[in-house]
Amino acid sequence: MIDHYAVNKFLYDTDRNPEFVQRYIDDPEGYVDWYFAERMSRLLDNESEASDVRTPDEATRTALATYDFATLYGEGAHPFILWTLMLPVIEAKLASGEFETPTAPDGARLENRAPMAYYRERILPSGRPYFRY
Q1: Which residue pairs, CB below 8 angstroms and at least 24 apart, start in 91-94?
Q2: Closest C-alpha to 7, from 82, 110, 99, 94
Q3: If DSSP states are collapsed to H, E and C, what string results for the chain?
Q4: What is the CA radius of gyration of the chain?
Q5: What residues does 42 pair with on adjacent strands?
Q6: What b/e readout covers 58-73, taking b as 16+ CB neighbours within 10 angstroms?
Q7: pTM, whole model, 2 decimals?
Q8: Any idea where the domains of the chain sit in the sequence?
Q9: Is 108 exposed, middle or buried (0-12, 13-18, 19+ CB in 10 A)?
Q10: 55 φ/ψ angles, rounded to the nearest 5 degrees
Q11: How do the pLDDT tens digits run along the chain, 133 residues long?
């Protein structure tokens, strides 16, 4: 089971900083290692204080480093925060050819169709989020 606090803090903190998002896209393993070593224990918007936070387990780190959002979603990561961070990641990976372009669903904005289809296809087996807090 994932560490919900660590995952949601990682998603939220990374998503609000465009430089962090780009670093995560460019080097996910390096970024995850850096984040948990250097940033995880910091209180957001307060660089002078630290919190007593456990380092997440290897399964959580691996899911984040491999963009395994289906596992994160299925294990109860906050679905909105997860989507807002994965959207630029999926867009970049589709554009570079690293991710295969899926069949786009009707009804979505044109620019979001391929990323939404890629995301939806992978989380669909999990159904609705189940928060095990």
Answers
A1: 91/115, 92/25, 93/25, 93/67, 94/118
A2: 82
A3: CCCHHHHHHHHHHHHCCHHHHHHHHHCHHHHHHHHHHHHCCEECCEEEEECCCCCCCHHHHHHHHCCCHHHHHHCCCCHHHHHHHHHHHHHHHHHHCCCCCCCCCCCCCHHHHHHHHHHHHHHHHHCCCCCCC
A4: 15
A5: 50
A6: eebbebbbebbbbbbb
A7: 0.82
A8: 4-126
A9: middle
A10: -75, 130
A11: 778 888 998 999 999 999 999 999 999 999 999 998 888 877 666 666 666 666 788 989 999 999 999 999 988 899 999 999 999 999 999 889 888 876 666 666 666 678 888 888 888 888 876 555 5
- Site of tokens 């087996």: 125
Distance CA 10, CA 130 (A): 19
Dig out the tokens for 45 from the structure.
Answer: 């918007």
Instruction: Check: CB of residue 105 under 8 Å from CB of residue 120.
Output: yes
The angle at the Cα of 30, spanning 78 to 117, to the nearest 5 degrees, equals: 45
